[in-house]
Each structure stands twice: as C-alpha cells, then as structure tokens.
C-alpha cells in the first residue's frame, strides 16, 4: 500500500508540477489555444488562472518533499486534500460549462488525490 501511495503521489506531483507551472508561465490566451479542453480559462481572470497554477505547484511540492525530507510529513495528506478541492472546483466548472467529456479526467485526478489523502491520513500515515 505504501508503494502504491508513493507511486500515485509521484504521478500526481509530476502532472500538477507541469500543469501548474504552465499556468504560471503562459498567458491565458496561450493556455486557451491548447484546444477544447482548455476553454475553461474563459471563465477566469488571468490572475485567477495564475493562482490556480500556484496552488497546483504548491500541492505538487507538498505531495513529495515533506515526506522525503521528513519535515512535517502531515503536509502530504493536506496537499492531497487541497488538490481534491482544486479538482472539485474543476469538475464544477466543467458541469457549469457543459463539458462532461473532459470532466472525466478531473474526476480521475480527484479520486487519485483522495486515495493519497485517505492513505496518508489513515492506514499508511507517516505519523504512525
């Protein structure tokens, strides 16, 4: 179970590090140009898109570094919980926009973050 949690946390961290960094680096118009799955940025200001990117990068770091450095490892499940909130917001945005096809990916990320939060708060806690 511990290995599965590390793998899922690593995959999530990689995805959110690159996704969040791209939101921080690129303009809103460039993000929107990626295709139909990126049209959600129309609903947000450039500052809000940057804030979402910053939250994703912080969560990616929080999924790995606290456990690796053994400094406040309780931050790992908290980072996963934060990602669950971000992905809940993403799913709500998709529902509001009628983008049900793209919402499936958001729900998969939500479930994976939930798995890490559950595992690190519960059976494979770093505190136990």
Report a brief summary of the structure.
This protein is mostly helical and 128 residues long. The protein has helices spanning 2-25, 28-32, 46-69, 75-97, 100-121.
Q: Give, in order, the helices and strands.
A: HHHHH
State Rg: 15 Å
Q: Please estimate the helix content.
A: over 70%
The total strand number stands at 0
Determine the structural class based on helices, strands and strand pairing.
mainly alpha
Number of helices: 5
Query: How far apart are the first and last residues' alpha carbons, in Å?
Result: 15 Å
| Unreliable parts | none
| Percent strand | under 5%
Largest sheet: none
Shape: globular
Number of domains: 1
Let me know the average pLDDT: 94
InterPro entries: DoxX
Organism: Catellatospora aurea
Protein name: DoxX family protein
Keywords: Membrane, Transmembrane, Transmembrane helix
Please give the structural blueprint:
Blueprint: H1 2-25, H2 28-32, H3 46-69, H4 75-97, H5 100-121
Q: Can you walk me through this structure?
A:
The protein is mainly alpha-helical. The chain has one domain. Helix content is 77%, strand content 0%. Helix 1 (2-25) packs antiparallel against helix 3 (46-69) and helix 4 (75-97) runs antiparallel to helix 5 (100-121). The longest helix has 24 residues, at 2-25. The radius of gyration is 15 Å and the shape is globular. The model has no long low-confidence stretch (mean pLDDT 94). Its main location: membrane. It is a multi-pass membrane protein. This is DoxX family protein. Keywords: Membrane, Transmembrane, Transmembrane helix. InterPro entries: DoxX.
